[in-house]
Automatic annotation (TrEMBL):
Record-given protein name: DnaJ homolog subfamily C member 7
Predominant localisation class: cytoplasm
PROSITE patterns reported in the protein's UniProt record: DNAJ_2, TPR, TPR_REGION
TPR repeat coordinates: 32-65, 214-247, 260-293, 332-365
Keyword Nucleotide-binding annotated: no
CDD domains: DnaJ
Keyword match Nucleus: yes
Species of provenance: Phascolarctos cinereus
């Protein structure tokens, strides 16, 4: 920029003198030159505001002098006022089409504003006038590069490769720092990538300079929409449409936001009313509205998971909660819901993993207790399940436990399987022993309490390693002679009890 914005402090000797307004008014010309020289002095000191003032005075004195407009254009460029600078640069080449620096400055302004094609034409014109001009050569390459970045970004946006678009726009903005179009595209892609603070920052910067910029208003709304602040988002979309009624993206986003809000609210109402089937359908419809709305869709998946849990479709509930945390890995509610489903389906290792994730994120007493409960159930699950062995519920009464033992003990007693293969005999003997173990623990209130609480039964002399199932069997059926097995044929037995 420094080379393009360098002032014409000394004009070439061969350059034609600009024609003054009045041919015989030398005093006016000299006064204008004095203002220009003062402008040059301030420019050299980087006091661009004062330089601008003096160049303006020079232009007022001699409005047909190309170099005065060129100098003021250079000053405006240094102040970042590229649109105004563009007007001065264009006026300078209208007054003198052979003014190389004028064409360079016009091209530089076009490029800074993102008009790379127009910039290329200006740099080509400068090269026609001076084919060895290295600045024109370099700037032409820069403008060509920006055109290429635009082309790549357009294709990548269609492919939803938003990271690549952000990369291309960052490169393009190095040459076109004042291009709102590039900034908006970058901000939109940042929003689509979930980088909302960055996207909002870019959009806010533009709105500070131009509060009516419909694209920036749209991006602000988009960030709020994707952060699940749907009502506020709609306000920005409506404002953008006021500024630009034909803004297609704002129109679509506004329509989606309203539809999503309505479906979600209807689903919530159906859930509260206990109409779980309808709630499921409404949440499913809402999920189909906008796949890009990560946060809202995460909540919808979690809500649908809750519905599935109510419908006792626990595997579906787990799948929905998994989809929720895939979209938002900080979503505590989804982890808690999935963990409970894992507990209900006795997948204790998975439940512990989810509760650990929750507790690491939010170290509350409630979350700590949930984790401890899951760890206890996991520990218990790795022991023999005596309730399952007897085929009774955990709330079974003493009589139900006795009846279950009677049935299972007789079913698996070794004498009943004396004619079976060695492999079957071994398996039935193992089951017979387990049935005896289960009855020993569950029929004793103290041992049952310790077992239910997850305590080790091997502690305090309750080692099951030396357990004899036959002694339990004999005691239960009244001792020797209290029962007998009589074979009535292969696989059929009669039982007699004393």
């Amino acid at each position: 920029m420094a080379a393009a914005a360098e002032c014409d402090v000394v004009m070439a000797a061969a350059a034609a003198e600009p024609e003054p307004e009045l041919p015989d008014d030398e005093e006016t010309r000299r006064e204008a030159e004095s203002f220009k020289e003062q402008g040059n002095a301030y420019y050299a000191k980087k006091d661009y505001n004062e330089a601008y003032n003096y160049y303006t005075k020079a232009i007022d004195m001699c409005p047909k002098n190309a170099s005065y407009y060129g100098n003021r254009a250079a000053t405006l460029m240094m102040l970042g006022r590229f649109r105004e600078a563009l007007g001065d640069a264009q006026q300078s080449v209208r007054l003198d089409d052979s003014f190389v620096r004028g064409h360079l400055r016009e091209g530089k302004c076009h490029l800074s504003l993102g008009n790379a094609m127009a910039a290329c034409r200006c740099f080509q014109k400068a090269l026609e006038l001076d084919h060895r001009n290295t600045q024109a050569q370099q700037e032409f390459k820069n403008a060509t590069a920006v055109l290429e970045y635009e082309k790549i970004a357009e294709m990548d946006f269609e492919k939803r490769d938003y990271r690549k678009v952000v990369f291309c726009m960052d490169r393009a903005l190095e040459f076109a720092p004042a291009c709102h179009r590039f900034k908006i595209l970058k901000a939109e892609c940042l929003a689509l990538l979930g980088r909302y603070p960055e996207a909002q920052s870019v959009a806010s910067d533009i709105l500070r300079m131009d509060s009516t910029n419909a694209d920036a208003l749209y991006v602000r709304g988009l960030c709020l929409y994707y952060e699940d602040c749907i009502e506020k988002a709609v306000q920005f979309f409506v404002q953008a449409l006021r500024m630009a009624p034909d803004h297609e993206k704002a129109c679509l986003a506004c329509r989606n936001a309203k539809a999503l809000k309505a479906k979600k609210e209807d689903g919530n109402k159906a859930f509260k009313d206990g109409n779980y089937k309808l709630a499921y359908e409404l949440y499913t419809e809402a999920l189909g509205i906008d796949p890009n709305n990560i946060k809202t869709n995460a909540k919808l998946y979690c809500n649908r998971g809750t519905v599935n849990a109510k419908l006792r479709k626990l595997d579906d509930a787990i799948e929905d909660c998994t989809n929720a945390v895939k979209l938002d890995d900080t979503y505590i509610k989804a982890y808690l819901r999935r963990a409970q489903c894992y507990m209900d389906t006795e997948q204790y290792e998975e439940a512990v993993r989810d509760y650990e994730k929750v507790y690491q994120t939010e170290k509350t007493k409630e979350h700590k207790q949930l984790l401890k409960n899951a760890q206890l159930e996991l520990k218990k699950s790795k022991r023999k399940d005596y309730y399952k062995i007897l085929g009774v519920d955990k709330n079974a009464s003493e009589d139900e436990i006795k009846k279950a033992y009677r049935k299972r003990a007789l079913m698996h007693h070794p004498d009943r399987h004396s004619g079976a293969s060695a492999e079957v005999q071994k398996e039935e003997e193992k089951k017979f022993k387990e049935v005896g173990e289960a009855f020993t623990i569950l029929s004793d209130p103290k041992k049952k309490t310790r077992y239910d609480s997850g305590q080790d039964l091997d502690e305090e002399g309750m080692n099951m390693g030396d357990f004899d199932a036959n002694n339990i069997f004999k005691a239960f059926f009244g001792g020797p002679g209290g029962f007998s097995f009589e074979a009535s044929g292969p696989g059929n037995f009669f039982f007699q009890f004393g």
